[in-house]
Amino acid sequence: MFSSARYIPSIFVKRDALQFTFFLTSRCNARCPFCFYWQDRHSQRDELTLDEIERFSATMGNLLWLLFSGGEIFLRKDLTRIVQAFYRNTRPVIITLPTNGMAPDLIALRVEEIAAQCPRSAIVCKISLDGVGEEHDHLRDTPGNFDRAMETWERLRTLAERYDNLQIGINTVFCQENQDRMDEIIDFVDTLPGCETHTISMIRGNPAAADYKHIDLEKYKRAIDRLDLELKGEKPKMYHFTMARLKSAQDLVQRQLIYRTMRQSRRLLPCYAGRITAVMNEVGDVFPCEILLDAMGNIREFDYDFRKLFHSEQADRVRAKIHRSRCYCSHECYFVTNILFNPLMYGQVAGRYLQLAGKGTKVAR
Ligand code: SF4
Ligand code: SF4
User: What is the pTM of this model?
Assistant: First the structure.
């Protein structure tokens, strides 16, 4: 696997993006009412082409974590070639591929191609599951989604037996509609063979169905407490890539920190968004994070030179604004980097790490 040790200097000097989220497309074959992406951002401009992606990825330097997003990323016909371009140019330690699981054959085909062609990266494929059975379909307003997601799960589980770099998991969006069903969802995910992670993401953005955001934070706390208990228990779900236990320890710290942040309505940690993280949408606009819509620039206007854009005056202005504004959010991705690259958090992470010592990192499939 590519080494994560090369990112240690970024604990002290934060100059370049090591976590990159790329919204590949705003197209989607589902219609989730809580989606913050396809509804209000469906763009009339052209998606970046493979050639454009090849060009800018060659200017990025190495990445610790490459996260694709959308839209449904598997709708891009050139997905494998896009991932290959990043693999060659940025040598990511972890590549995350989220999916709604609506197209089992296509997803299995692409994931196998990617796992085979990117052997030195941990390929993490996560299926969205927000309810069990018809609840899931109803919540996502997408008939048949649950059955297809389960078919996709079975296909990926079989693949994960053959590709050691492939790891599979579930993500659940916590929202008003399912906050009373978290136990049922967690119980169900516990029965899924081969599941190496179950994450619960608090709903974010400005969904058209605003009601979905009326969540009860104490119900969120109960759900994450249960995930924490499971992680410390006899049969924890845990990735099997190098440093997976450290990742799990950070998860334990992160979930409770997100709860406290939202409870206190303020940022409790420095945020490194725009310093070691960057987000790009499908037409090349670059942002510091997924929440703030202050663009640092568009890659097409910087001759596809990512570093030039990331170190531009406009990018500096955006970073300064983040520093001044002390905005806060619950976005899990930024808690990952804000914890792992902040030495003041290491005591807490080490404590959790010791609690997990001796826990297995490979689940039965
Ligand atoms: S599957 Fe994802 S991108 Fe598609 S509508 Fe649902 S939340 Fe949005
Ligand atoms: S606190 Fe959240 S919204 Fe603010 S810059 Fe960081 S990630 Fe973005």
Answer: 0.95
